[in-house]
Design goal:
With about 725 residues, the protein is an alpha+beta fold. It folds into five domains: about 1-35 and about 240-400, Multidrug efflux transporter AcrB transmembrane domain (Multidrug efflux transporter AcrB transmembrane fold, Up-down Bundle); about 60-105, no CATH class; about 110-215, Gyrase A, domain 2, CATH 3.30.1360; about 410-430 and about 535-710, Multidrug efflux transporter AcrB transmembrane domain (Multidrug efflux transporter AcrB transmembrane fold), CATH 1.20.1640; about 450-530, 2-Layer Sandwich (Alpha-Beta Plaits), CATH 3.30.70. Helices cover about 65% and strands about 15% of the residues. The protein is built from 19 helices and 19 strands. It has helices spanning about 1-30, 35-40, 55-70, 95-105, 150-160, 200-210, 230-280, 290-315, 320-355, 360-390, 415-435, 445-450, 465-480, 505-520, 535-560, 565-590, 595-625, 630-665, 665-715, and strands at about 35, 40-50, 80, 85-90, 110-115, 120, 125-135, 140-150, 170, 175-180, 190-195, 220-225, 285, 445, 450-460, 485-490, 495-500, 525-530, 590-595. Strands 3-4-2-12-18-15-17-16 form an eight-stranded antiparallel β-sheet. The protein has a four-stranded antiparallel β-sheet with strand order 6-5-9-10.
Length: about 725
């Protein structure tokens, strides 16, 4: 006994040290986590090549040149290819993002022409263009120094030799940006353009020439500007929300599950430390939805533990010893944990595959969270429980005893639940029709789905709708030159979202200055998103395709694992129900449908299927142990009743995490958290009240067809 106690104490000490070490390293690596633009502030641009089917060489060359250019703004800047003809540029951590967007500009065509209109060379033959100052003559003179490649050197030498005293026209996007006069033949591959009034003029000319020297002509599809202050505020509030939500979950787990709850809490502490380390190890770019994914995964990590603890309570209630109950509980919970987490991983994989930017970040953190939750629940929690038992916590009262389950007639209320769900879904379609009839879209599509520019402004006071219309809108429309500006208040904040046609960089900068001058707002807290109609249409298609692909993959997996199409079909029907109900809320309350909408929907799908699988796993187990005196209806009601506590407790802990995030988070987090809370409630309801009833109906029809087929075969044989 003493030997066992000693080993258990040593094991617990090792676990506590591991939690401390990983927690310390996790905390110390937080500064090394790569932050997305919505957290660090900065500028992001998506370009598309104007040339159809550009070659891989041209794409690679253009990416390389852009990368060289943006490194001047930030060492963390990234340029990467998306698809066959798109290039993304991310420059985080910059203080004046609008100025960089202006300087980087819109890459276009650049040519050098002689006085007679003949093309001398194009931008590809310009190796570099730098602004500088020359005081060799005794007076300050601002110049632009050009360097040509071998082909450009030869062409420029010939042109300047034949054109002394004549201008050379530098033309960018069919506009003359400079026309310097040739003073002498230039044969060395380098030249200087002088006559600039100041450094700014020289720098602008050099930037334009550098942009035009890209291998491909590009057009801007989307741009995003975020102030660094807003990003820091988002980090701070999200971390506080995570800490508070985590503390509430820990208290809840210990209060409800006693020693197992304490073991799970220790495992969750290790989970958080490991999560921070893995974010750095896998070079994951953390975005606001990514933070939400981590906090959500903490809530979901409780699920595996709850499934195990429920099993342990049942085994103790059946008369087994605590030690035996722990072993059996983990064994019986294994299949439900694996199946539930694999289906959620499917949703995360589809998100990563079909999504981009912040959606991929969310998918990455969600997938990491799922894998870690399985590891900590199946190994760390088990280790901690065995240590507690070995130390001396052997009495069943420390683990809870679940007596015989009181079976509730869930199937009896199936028709009522179907009717209630149908009413909500029909109401959703009605709201969509009303929204479209009133001159808008069926849903409140954000910039990602409509195209245009969305500007988020934090005023110094709470602006009323009347004041926004009377004072803010005229300022905006004076700059845009168009009527029809749309505004939207962010509930509970001083933020106002201004939606306009697509604004260019000059108009954005003018709008920022006008808002600062007229209303005293902090320009660093003004964020802007611009997106073209073409890319927004693609995002709509991606959202639909992602949900369809995820649903089909889940259906195939469940069919394979449960060996019956009735399980897969009823689970998928319940998922379709969840999607339609959440869409009804989007339509009724006109929630913004943006890039996080895809992540939200697939998270709800993954979460809901997880709860359904736990019930189906118990149903499958009970069907195998079915007695002749038991009806299928009795087995279904028993299975739902046995898993009811797990379903409610898991949903409650996840809801708590998301709710705290909603209360404390910035507007973009709230936009994600609100429909997610609806989805958690809806997913729990559909798993308990609909999925099992759907399975019962489909199974009864299947058995009836089998019986009819058997009777038909018997009549033929007779």
């Amino acid at each position: 006994m003493k030997n066992r106690n000693g080993k258990s104490l040593l094991g617990m000490l090792v676990l506590l040290v591991a939690i401390g070490v990983f927690g310390y390293f996790g905390y110390s690596t937080m500064n090394a986590i790569k932050l997305g633009l919505d957290l660090a502030g900065g500028v992001s641009i998506t370009y598309q090549a104007k040339e159809e089917n550009p070659s891989a060489e041209d794409m690679a060359d253009t990416i390389y040149k852009l990368q060289q250019r943006v490194q001047n703004y930030s060492t963390e800047a990234e340029v990467y290819q998306e698809g066959n003809d798109r290039i993304n540029v991310d420059i985080p951590g910059v203080s004046d993002a609008n100025a960089i967007l202006q300087e980087l500009g819109k890459p276009g065509s650049l040519v050098f022409m002689d006085a007679e209109g003949n093309q001398i060379l194009d931008g590809k033959q310009v190796s570099s263009a730098k602004a500088g100052m020359d005081d060799s003559s005794g007076a300050k003179e601002y110049v632009v120094s050009l360097t040509f490649n071998e082909e450009g050197t030869k062409a420029f030498a010939e042109a300047t030799t034949n054109g002394v005293g004549q201008p050379i026209y530098i033309i960018y996007d069919n506009q003359i940006i400079s026309a310097p006069t040739v003073q002498e033949p230039i044969t060395g591959g380098q030249c200087r353009i002088n006559g600039m009034a100041d450094y700014e003029e020289a720098n602008n000319l050099a930037s334009t020439i550098r942009i035009g020297s890209l291998s491909l002509e590009l057009e801007e599809l989307r741009s995003n500007v975020v102030g660094a202050k807003l990003g820091q505020e988002a980090i701070s509030t999200s971390l506080k929300a995570g800490a508070i939500g985590f503390a509430i979950v820990v208290v809840f787990m210990i209060a409800v599950y006693l020693i197992p709850g304490l073991a799970a809490s220790l495992a969750l502490c290790l989970y958080v430390g490991l999560m921070l380390i893995l974010l750095v190890a896998f070079d994951v770019t953390l975005t606001l939805p990514g933070v939400a994914g981590i906090i959500l995964s903490i809530g979901m990590a409780v699920d595996a533990n709850v499934i195990i603890f429920t099993r342990i309570k049942e085994e103790i209630g059946a008369g087994k010893t605590v030690q035996s109950a722990i072993k059996t509980g983990f064994s019986k919970a294994l299949s439900a944990i694996i199946d539930g987490n694999v289906t959620t991983l499917i949703a995360a994989a589809v998100l990563f595959w079909r999504g981009s930017g912040t959606v991929k970040g969310f998918a990455s953190t969600l997938a990491l969270g799922i894998v870690l939750s399985m590891f900590t629940a199946l190994f760390v929690t088990r280790f901690a429980l065995n240590c507690f038992y070995g130390i001396g916590f052997e009495d069943a009262k420390f683990y809870g005893i679940r007596k015989e389950t009181k079976v509730k007639p869930f199937l009896k209320y199936g028709k009522v639940c179907f009717a209630a769900s149908l009413i909500v879904i029909v109401a959703g379609f009605a709201f969509m029709g009303v929204n479209q009839a009133s001159g808008g879209s069926i849903l409140n599509y954000s910039m990602e789905f409509r195209g245009g520019t969305s500007t988020n402004v934090t005023f110094n006071e709470d602006m009323s709708l009347e004041r926004i219309s009377a004072e803010v809108v005229p300022v905006v429309e004076e700059i845009t030159g168009e009527a029809g500006t749309q505004t939207q208040k962010v509930a509970g904040t001083n933020e106002v979202i201004i939606k306009t046609r697509t604004l260019n960089v000059e108009e954005r900068e003018a709008l920022d200055k006008a808002l600062a001058e007229n209303f005293g707002v902090d320009q660093e807290k003004i964020t802007a998103d611009s997106i073209s109609g073409a890319i927004s249409q693609e995002m709509k298609q991606d959202a639909i395709i992602a949900v369809i692909i995820a649903t089909i993959c889940m259906l195939i997996y469940i069919w394979f694992r449960f060996s019956k199409i009735t399980f897969a079909a009823s689970a998928v029907l319940a998922l379709v129900h969840d999607v339609l109900v959440v869409l009804a809320f989007y339509a009724a309350f006109k929630w913004s449908v943006g890039s996080t909408f895809i992540a939200c929907m697939l998270t709800i799908v993954g979460y809901s299927i997880n709860a359904t699988i736990v019930i189906f796993d118990r149903l499958r187990e009970n069907l195998k142990a079915k007695k002749h005196t038991d009806s299928v209806e009795d087995i279904v009601n028993l299975s739902v009743s046995q898993t009811l506590t797990r379903s409610v407790n898991t949903s409650l802990t996840t809801f708590i995490m998301v709710f705290v995030l909603f209360i404390m988070g910035v507007s973009s987090i709230r936009e994600f958290a609100l429909p997610l809370m609806v989805g958690i409630v809806c997913g729990t309801y559909s798993s308990i009240c609909l999925a099992s009833s759907l399975w019962y109906i489909l199974n009864q029809r299947r058995e009836k067809k089998k019986a009819e087929a058997g009777n038909s075969a018997s009549r033929k044989n007779s």
